[in-house]
């Protein structure tokens, strides 16, 4: 790991070039997935004539708004494979990118409050172990050992009957992840173009040949969409529909506290998840707002409910003050699994539908999407997540593993 000081302002980590008239590949969306895709296109496939177009500022969408949880304890084989690949990449990325983004493998604890929760948790642990994912089933006493401040009293409204635990899971500093990917992609020759909104697509018959933007026309042979909650709008401009609904997803953060919360705790039944960031603030979230929309904000009742749930699980937080709240836009598919692959438009590829699980998948999403764009064929890890599964019926239902929208 380098010891040389990094610039105080992230803009100094990469160039801010003017867009060229043409590129081999254009990526729409400079969030974690777009940046990772560009990085792996250059690193793994030698494609450096790449532009990453961002209508706002780099990593200012969901990458700046997520709660930074990283885990791979998904139920189905297809999901476990891609998320476990992501987790293995996470473990080596700080050294590979030469940037410390504070990846902390403090574990993720999913609580069980009912007999059904217990059965489902044990089933998932068994499936995880068969897929080579580190997973454990903990009883109430073991849960208390992992997280001493958690209320495990049998007299609570929803007593803790146990929980699943993934020790290798954890959190990372999301902004630093984006800056690390951006810096390395820039060094490899990728153009990161901020303030450049795609307003339309140039077509020659059934294939795309470029994009129209607010900064002019850009010709290209291949386009990758990595715009998360706005993916369906871009698809509509390209002439096809995606089975995606966009919802606001809120999170909130407290004032700074001394380190008291050693892991990440999730509860579907009480409906909240809580972690403590590196600086000391408590980071909390819950489910999506029920309505569809593209506003990066949410309803007050969701904030109230998740604060009440957090205090129910952690009475010690009763006097903590909420510092701020924010919202992102999550793109949810009918089976709560992503779409990564080709589209009905030739040379146009899409990476979307990650819902609430996009951040944890960042390196694997970039790895597989770059492979798909570079070769024209899906990587074995993302082949099951093709758009065609919604017509063939080969769905990958991960609604249960979404774990309180995370």
Pick out its properties.
8-stranded mixed β-sheet; 29% helix; 406 residues; FAD/NAD(P)-binding domain; D-Amino Acid Oxidase, Chain A, domain 2; single chain; 2 domains
Task: Please explain how this structure is put together.
The chain has two domains: 189 residues, FAD/NAD(P)-binding domain (3-Layer(bba) Sandwich), CATH 3.50.50; 153 residues, D-Amino Acid Oxidase, Chain A, domain 2 (2-Layer Sandwich), CATH 3.30.9. 29% of the residues lie in helices and 26% in strands. The strands form three sheets. Strands 1, 2, 8, 9, 10, 11, 17 and 18 form an eight-stranded mixed beta sheet that branches. Strands 5-6-4-13-14-15-12-16 form an eight-stranded mixed beta sheet. A two-stranded antiparallel sheet has the order 3-7. Strand 9 and strand 10 form a beta hairpin. The protein is globular. One of its GO terms (cellular component) is cytoplasm. One of its GO terms (biological process) is tetrahydrofolate metabolic process.
Structural class by helix and strand composition: alpha/beta
**First-last Cα distance:** 31 Å
Element-by-element helix/strand order: EHEHEHEHEHEEHEEEEHEEEEHEEEHH
CATH topology of the largest domain: FAD/NAD(P)-binding domain
State the total count of DSSP E strands.
18
CATH class of the largest domain: Alpha Beta
Ranges with pLDDT <50 over ≥5 residues? none
Mean pLDDT over the residues: 94
Write the layout of secondary structure elements.
Blueprint: E1 22-28, H1 32-45, E2 50-54, H2 62-65, E3 69-70, H3 77-97, E4 108-112, H4 115-130, E5 136-138, H5 140-146, E6 162-166, E7 170-171, H6 174-187, E8 191-194, E9 198-204, E10 207-213, E11 216-225, H7 231-238, E12 245-256, E13 264-267, E14 272-276, E15 281-288, H8 300-313, E16 322-332, E17 339-342, E18 348-352, H9 362-375, H10 389-392
Parallel strand pairs: 1-2, 1-11, 2-8, 4-13, 11-18
Antiparallel strand pairs: 3-7, 4-6, 5-6, 9-10, 10-11, 12-15, 12-16, 13-14, 14-15, 17-18
Helix pairs in contact: 1-6, 1-9, 3-9
């Amino acid at each position: 790991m380098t010891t040389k000081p990094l610039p105080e302002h992230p803009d100094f980590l990469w160039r801010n070039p003017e867009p060229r008239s043409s590129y081999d590949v254009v990526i729409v969306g400079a969030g974690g997935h777009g940046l990772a895709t560009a990085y792996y296109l250059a690193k793994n496939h030698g494609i450096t004539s790449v532009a990453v177009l961002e209508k706002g500022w780099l990593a200012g969408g969901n990458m700046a708004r997520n709660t930074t949880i990283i885990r791979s304890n998904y139920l189905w084989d297809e999901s476990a494979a891609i998320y476990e690949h992501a987790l293995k990449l996470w473990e080596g990325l700080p050294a590979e990118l030469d940037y410390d983004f504070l990846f902390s493998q403090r574990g993720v604890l999913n609580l069980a409050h009912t007999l059904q929760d217990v059965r489902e948790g044990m089933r998932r642990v068994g499936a995880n172990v068969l897929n080579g994912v580190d997973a454990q089933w903990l009883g109430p006493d073991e849960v208390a050992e992992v997280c001493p401040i958690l209320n495990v009293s049998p007299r609570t409204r929803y007593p803790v009957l146990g929980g699943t635990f993934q020790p290798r899971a954890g959190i990372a500093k999301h902004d630093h992840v984006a800056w690390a990917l951006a810096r390395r992609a820039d060094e490899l020759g990728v153009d990161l173009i901020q303030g450049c909104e795609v307003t339309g697509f140039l077509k020659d018959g059934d294939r795309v040949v470029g994009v129209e933007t607010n900064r002019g026309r850009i010709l290209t042979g291949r386009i990758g969409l990595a715009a998360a909650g706005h993916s369906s709008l871009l698809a509509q401009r390209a002439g096809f529909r995606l089975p995606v609904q966009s919802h606001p997803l809120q999170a909130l953060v407290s004032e700074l506290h001394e380190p008291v919360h050693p892991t990440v705790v999730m509860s579907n039944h009480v409906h909240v998840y809580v972690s403590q960031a590196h600086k000391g603030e408590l980071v909390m979230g819950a489910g999506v707002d029920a309505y569809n929309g593209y506003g990066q904000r949410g309803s007050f009742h969701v904030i109230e409910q998740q604060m009440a749930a957090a205090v129910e699980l952690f009475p010690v937080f009763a006097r903590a003050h909420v510092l701020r709240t924010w919202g992102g836009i999550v793109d949810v598919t009918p089976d709560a699994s992503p779409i990564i692959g080709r589209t009905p438009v030739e040379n146009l590829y899409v990476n979307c539908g990650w819902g609430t699980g996009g951040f944890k998948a960042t390196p694997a999403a970039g790895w597989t999407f770059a492979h798909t764009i570079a070769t024209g064929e899906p990587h074995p890890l993302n082949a099951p997540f093709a758009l065609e599964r919604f017509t063939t019926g080969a769905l990958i239902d991960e609604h249960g593993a979404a774990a309180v929208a995370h």
